[in-house]
């Protein structure tokens, strides 16, 4: 896949940071590219699937993703999304000596303070020097906030990806395995075997994770757990809560 570099000037070294606010519709794709700066991806609304460092990362409003400078990445939005991207120069990163994981792609839990700092950077309420201090404080917070896991490995095989995309991006949670196998031009047995080999998960387990990640956006919109459970094809709210805990390590309410 061709890779492009985003050379758009955003800030000088004295400023050290800049940001973009972008609205996406479900299914939109930003193809593979990289930036000269470090980047913090955060969605105030919506869920994104980011491909970086040979892994796929699910980014709901409860999470943010750190991308080091020059990291090739692409992303697809799983629902209507309001993205906030904060770009940080290498010199500003170097000033934050506590940020030991600055060269690694990783998920960060979006704490209330982190959200407030990001929101503050996108308002006109503060002067440029104050915003620079806010950007540095944001990096300090990234250095201390525990990482959170949120992976949904999409198949690399084009046939399997086509079938998996039909399920995830169209929210066809009750689609039969036989139909997905037909989309991939495979037998059900071959589809299941290849899916496990390609993603590291059985199709059943992967589908369960996909449904849980799809629920994150609904939870962020304060939709009742009961409604989410039935919308995603679970037999009852208790089944949804149990599946959520197995994937996310906490209940929907605690999350």
Automatic annotation (TrEMBL):
The keyword Transcription regulation appears for this protein: yes
HTH araC/xylS-type domain residues: 161-255
The protein's name: Arabinose operon regulatory protein
InterPro entries documented for this protein: AraC-bd, Homeodomain-like_sf, HTH_AraC, HTH_AraC-typ_CS, RmlC-like_jellyroll, RmlC_Cupin_sf, Tscrpt_reg_AraC-type_HTH
Record-linked Gene3D superfamilies: Homeodomain-like (1.10.10.60), Jelly Rolls (2.60.120.10)
Pfam families in the record: AraC_binding (PF02311), HTH_18 (PF12833)
Keyword Transcription part of the UniProt annotation: yes
Keywords: Activator, DNA-binding, Transcription, Transcription regulation
